[in-house]
Amino acid sequence: MTNPKGSFIWYELMTSDPDGAARFYGAVVGWTIAAHSDPAASGVDYRMIGRSDGGNAGGVLALNADMLAGGARPAWMGYLYTPDVDATIAAIEADGGAVHMPATDLPVGRIAMLSDPQGAVFYVMNPIPPAGMEDRDSDVFSVTEAQHVRWNELMTSDPDAAIAFYRKHFGWGQEGAFDMSDMGAYRFLQLGEVGIGAVMGLMPGVPAAMWSYYIGVDDIDRAAAAITANGGTITNEPMEIPGGEFAMNGVDPQGAAFGLVGPRR
């Protein structure tokens, strides 16, 4: 693959009900989530998320009883690319980050689950591309396209420290900000020339640092109606964002929080 280090190369929904998640996100986003586990999933129930264009949007991990007993809960997770998982782990630990799942080899690559010093959790991964696709980029993230994740948002107790951390370990830049008055600055993040997301302080009622992922939809009002019609909850109604599109937040029927972004038709 040719994605630069620090790219979001995969997104994963951890859920207690993959069939229910398939119905929900099919209606809201237009995805098709496989009805059965991927054969390469090493004994866990792991299903691919398909886009209408034939590409993959990420994966779905079914939380089994042991995972739930160990504290796992429905959530969306992002994977950051690094060519050396072990060196990245060592550097992040030395900077005050934590390891939640040690480096693990899977048929699709080497992964680990980490958190930054403020506690926001993410995966790192060095993937093994399928044979014949060694130069193919991951396209699960797109700035503009529906059915891709379009924005990555970090809420954290220390935005300055978080920006320094991700700049050091993943090469991100930070230029530009939006003034949110009493809530402080909404500071934009870049990887090279691409705007990948933003960092902000913790919102009222958010107890700990966390990543939120905004999925592109074709029509924000259609998607909002589908959330409530299919058992989800809207936590922030659609609001206009710079550029004229709209963003919103919700929780799926199993309890995983997500964001949506798209036009108003």
Automatic annotation (TrEMBL):
Gene3D superfamilies documented for this protein: 2,3-Dihydroxybiphenyl 1,2-Dioxygenase, domain 1
Stored InterPro entries: Anthracycline_SecMetBiosynth, Glyas_Bleomycin-R_OHBP_Dase, Glyas_Fos-R_dOase_dom, VOC_core
VOC domain mapped to chain residues: 7-127, 145-263
CDD domains: SgaA_N_like
Protein name: VOC domain-containing protein
Annotated source species: Sphingopyxis panaciterrulae
